Amino acid sequence: MLPAWITIEPPVQPAGVTLVSVHCSPNDQMLWALDSRCNVHVRVGITEEMPVGTDWDHVPGLQACQLALSTRTVWARCPNGDLARRYGVTDKHPAGDYWKKVPGHATCLTVTSSDELWAVGPPGYLLQRLTRTFSHAHGAQSSPTATSHPEDLEDEWEVI
């Protein structure tokens, strides 16, 4: 198949509202977009057989001026600098379930394919979000720094 641009209809929008940015996951399984009113949209129906997807869905819950996608997570920066993560995103449910704000403010952010979140925070410091991953298996920890104490689950940032 020869390389070509395929026109994809944008989400249905009120007059004067247009897409301003588009964001793809590193594994090409997620496509998200922002419009000129900071509304968030996700492309649904992306499969091996239909890599361009079938439609756009509005993702409610917050307004964003920047998105960052890993292979499994969507992060958003709100116009006021707040940061949020979208939970419940799966291949079958690309819009996910809800946004959850995380501590901190940023002027820009990026995420690696393995879900390491980086940001520039005020006043220009480089930040990396520290996270811990826990296994569902009883007593098993999937991270060497993981602990089973609930008080240790607070979200933290490391100033670099």
From TrEMBL:
PANTHER family, alphabetized: RUBY-EYE2-LIKE PROTEIN, TECTONIN BETA-PROPELLER REPEAT-CONTAINING PROTEIN 2
Protein name per UniProt: Tectonin beta-propeller repeat containing 2
Domain of life of the native organism: Eukaryota
GO terms, biological process: protein exit from endoplasmic reticulum
Region entry Disordered, spans: 137-160
Organism of provenance: Myotis myotis (Greater mouse-eared bat)
GO CC annotations, alphabetized: cytoplasm
Compositionally biased tracts (Polar residues): 137-148
